[in-house]
Structures are given as C-alpha cells and as structure tokens.
Recover the amino acids of this structure.
C-alpha cells in the first residue's frame, strides 16, 4: 500500500526514518493521502506546505508566455 501512495507523488527525500513526498493537489486529495499514510505507516510528524506566492506568480507568467 505504501508503494501505491508513493506513486501518486514525487519522492524528494528518501531516508530510513524520513520521507519527503510532493503531491499535486489538483490530482490527489490531501486529506485522503494523509489518512492513507497514517493507516500504513507509524507517522511521528507530518507537514503540509503550500507553494510560495512567488512561485505561483512565476507559474502564471510562464504559462502566459507559453500560450502566446
């Protein structure tokens, strides 16, 4: 089950007791992913981060350039 969850995202850090996984919230439900992880793992600490505003603005302008 854990491997199936990992396939829904991009593993950024993979250490023995620490994993950092990036998920696209347009493609997955954050609450469901968190529940699935807690069901199959002994979660000690979990963080959810939103992209920084600067990154979002850059993405918007980059998309506009691509469309022109």
């Amino acid at each position: 089950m854990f491997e199936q969850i990992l396939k829904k995202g991009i593993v950024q850090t993979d250490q023995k007791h620490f994993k950092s996984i990036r998920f696209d919230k347009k493609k997955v439900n954050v609450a469901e992913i968190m529940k699935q992880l807690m069901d199959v793992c002994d979660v000690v600490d979990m963080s959810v981060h939103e992209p920084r505003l600067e990154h979002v603005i850059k993405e918007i302008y980059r998309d506009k350039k691509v469309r022109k």
Q: What stands out?
A: The chain has one domain: 2-67. The first helix runs from residue 2 to 6. The mean pLDDT is 87. Residues 22 and 55 are 15 Å apart (CA to CA).
